[in-house]
Amino acid sequence: MVKSSFIPYSLIFLVLVLFAVPQAQALGTEMFVCTGADGVRTYQNSDGGAGCVPLNLNPITVVPAPRSAAKGGGVSESKSAGSAGRRAAAAYDSRSAADFNAKDDRMKILQEELRIEESKLKSLQDEYKNGQPDRLGSEKNYQKYLDRVSRLEQEIMVTNDNIEILKTELIRLSK
Questions:
Q1: Of 25 and 39, the one with more pLDDT
Q2: CA pair distance 12, 7, nearest whole angstrom
Q3: Higher pLDDT, 97 or 39
Q4: Mean pLDDT, to the nearest integer, of 107-119?
Q5: Helix 81-128 vs helix 142-174: crossing angle, to nearest 10
Q6: How many whole angstroms separate alpha carbon 33 and alpha carbon 54?
Q7: Is the pLDDT confidence value at 106 over 80?
Q8: Taking CA atoms, which of 2, 17, 107, 162 is between 20 and 30 Å from 154?
């Protein structure tokens, strides 16, 4: 009798485990966007309560790279060394042109990011007004005003650091 009662319970346990595993995996992949009272958005993997909205994240698709010609067959040995040299030089020239285009593209992107960061810094400094920003209507509590002033100071410091990093990277790429 012990065996007959053991089989149904183990079967029920197995079925419960099979239904619980996909739900546990789904809970780990769910993301939420939470907007605080100050308007700052944070991303969390757990529901933070009021102001949190679940994100609809699509699964990541991985596509393998196409096979290259070097793996497939390569150059036959019957071709002359001169034609192989010309092909190598042509490949080097095309790679150099591609590298040049990629470097030029990176510089354009960095210059655009630098322009955006500089405009952000200017707007932050205009709002900051040398440490005496205007009080907003929502800042009846003086601590809220001080919190906003410290947040502005932090954002100005981070933006200055970003500008310095972008300038350093642009100098490195121009060499």
A1: 39
A2: 9
A3: 39
A4: 92
A5: 150
A6: 6
A7: yes
A8: 107
SS3 6: helix
Give how far Cα 114 sits from Cα of 23, 118, 162, 167, Å: 45, 6, 8, 8
Single-letter amino acid code for the residue at 27: L
**The token pair that represents 96 in the structure block:** 């150099």
C-beta contacts of 111-120 below 8 A and 24+ residues apart: 111/170, 113/166, 114/163, 114/166, 114/167, 114/170, 117/159, 117/162, 117/163, 117/166, 118/163, 120/159
Q: How far apart are the first and last CA of the chain?
A: 84
**HEC string of 117-174?**
HHHHHHHHHHHHCCCCCCCCCCCCCHHHHHHHHHHHHHHHHHHHHHHHHHHHHHHHHH
**How much is the pLDDT for 45?**
81
Question: 0.70 cut: is pTM over it?
Answer: no
**The pLDDT value given to residue 84:** 61
pLDDT for res 92: 56
CB 155 within 8 A of CB 117: no
Count of all residues that appear for the chain in the document: 175
